[in-house]
């Protein structure tokens, strides 16, 4: 690598190695090691990182003599506040925390939301005893649930626990099962959906099944109960793509009811009373990162979900 010039905002690097390596992997290993791969990908997608003055994807394979231009924006850390927000805690020790997130709670602060999040609650509950691997805005967060999804999440208190749990997710050793209420009658009692998921080029906030830039994703499901026009499913995900369950169920024609992004946009269903997507993180199984024993947790359906099922059962 030969640095061409450097100033406080822009860095240019001539890639002179023979090794063919992904751009995001190279940057995470050699240049901006304090950034997560997801943050680096975000910078690439936003055009802050160019190859030969052109926008490329994070998966771009570097070639000898490629010119990498890094324009790293000022890192505006949010002023996070510890807030006394009640948490439903299923398990806690000095290494990890298993919580049951309520629907409507955002996991971590964003540019628009800086309070009322799970992170604000964790800062109050844990203080400084929480992992900072994902940065100051996402302490302890190993994986996420959508705002409107309820249920089980694991939190890392120490960096060692965080690294081990993240590796378990990468190695697909973590078992995560969800309960979903979907539109329509699912014909097969069980099934498997294997379809790559990537960013929808026409809608920045949506994911879609696509062979262009899509990443392998696998979801299985089993019918729990059938109603007149809806089906209750137990869903198991083997990969952790963004919006995976919602995208895959929509792909087979059975979107989650109440899903404002991937759901049906026809006239309102008079039997649907839930004000959010009917998706609940029901079961979580991990190997304790320090004790090395399997531990599992089951979260019952919340009241709004149960009320919805009662209404459907009457028809």
**Helical segment count:** 6
N to C succession of SSEs: EEHHEEEEEHEHEEEEEEHEEH
Q: How much of the residues is beta strand, in percent?
A: 25-35%
| Poorly predicted spans | 1-8
The major beta sheet can be summarized as: 9 strands, mixed
The mean pLDDT is 87
Radius of gyration: 21 Å
Structural key phrases:
alpha+beta; nine-stranded mixed beta sheet; five-stranded antiparallel beta sheet; 6 helices; 16 strands; 18% helix
Helices, strands, pairings?
Elements: E1 2-6, E2 10-14, H1 23-31, H2 37-45, E3 49-51, E4 54-55, E5 67-71, E6 89-92, E7 96-101, H3 118-126, E8 150-156, H4 159-170, E9 175-183, E10 190-194, E11 197-199, E12 207-209, E13 218-226, E14 230-237, H5 244-251, E15 279-287, E16 294-298, H6 303-313
Parallel strand pairs: 8-15
Antiparallel strand pairs: 1-2, 2-5, 3-4, 3-5, 6-7, 7-8, 9-14, 9-15, 10-13, 11-12, 13-14, 15-16
Helix pairs in contact: 1-2
Quick description:
The protein is an alpha+beta fold.
Task: Characterize the structure shown.
The protein is built from 6 helices and 16 strands. The protein has helices spanning 23-31, 37-45, 118-126, 159-170, 244-251, 303-313, and strands spanning 2-6, 10-14, 49-51, 54-55, 67-71, 89-92, 96-101, 150-156, 175-183, 190-194, 197-199, 207-209, 218-226, 230-237, 279-287, 294-298. Residues 1-8 have low confidence and may be disordered. By secondary structure, the chain is an alpha+beta fold. The strands form 3 sheets. Strands 6, 7, 8, 9, 10, 13, 14, 15 and 16 form a 9-stranded mixed beta sheet that branches. The chain starts with a strand and ends with a helix.
């Amino acid at each position: 690598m030969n640095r061409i010039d450097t100033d406080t905002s822009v860095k240019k690097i001539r890639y002179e190695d023979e090794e063919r390596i992904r751009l995001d992997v190279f940057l995470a290993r050699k240049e901006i090691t304090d950034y997560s791969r997801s943050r680096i990908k975000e910078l690439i997608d936003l055009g802050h990182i160019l190859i030969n003055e052109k926008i490329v994807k994070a998966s771009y394979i570097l070639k000898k003599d490629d010119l990498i231009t890094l324009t790293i924006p000022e890192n505006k850390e949010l002023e996070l506040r510890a807030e006394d927000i009640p948490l439903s805690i299923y398990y806690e020790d000095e290494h990890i925390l298993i919580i049951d997130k309520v629907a409507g709670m955002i996991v971590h602060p964003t540019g628009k939301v800086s309070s009322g999040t799970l992170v604000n609650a964790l800062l109050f509950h844990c203080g400084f005893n929480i992992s900072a691997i994902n940065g100051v805005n996402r302490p302890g967060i190993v994986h996420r649930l959508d705002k409107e999804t309820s249920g089980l999440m694991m939190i890392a208190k120490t960096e060692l626990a965080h690294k081990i749990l993240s590796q378990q997710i990468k190695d697909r050793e973590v078992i995560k099962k969800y309960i979903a209420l979907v539109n329509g009658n699912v014909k097969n009692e069980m099934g498997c959906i294997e379809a790559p998921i990537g960013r929808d080029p026409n809608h920045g906030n949506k994911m879609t099944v696509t062979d262009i830039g899509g990443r392998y994703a696998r979801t299985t499901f089993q019918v729990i109960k059938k109603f007149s026009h809806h089906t209750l499913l137990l869903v198991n995900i083997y990969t952790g793509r963004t919006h995976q369950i919602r995208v895959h169920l929509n792909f087979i024609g059975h979107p989650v009811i109440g899903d404002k992004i991937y759901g049906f946009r026809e006239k309102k269903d008079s039997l649907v009373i839930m004000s959010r997507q009917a998706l609940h993180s029901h079961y979580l199984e991990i190997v304790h990162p320090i004790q090395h024993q399997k531990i599992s947790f089951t979260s019952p359906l919340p009241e709004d979900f149960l009320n919805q099922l009662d209404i459907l059962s009457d028809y």
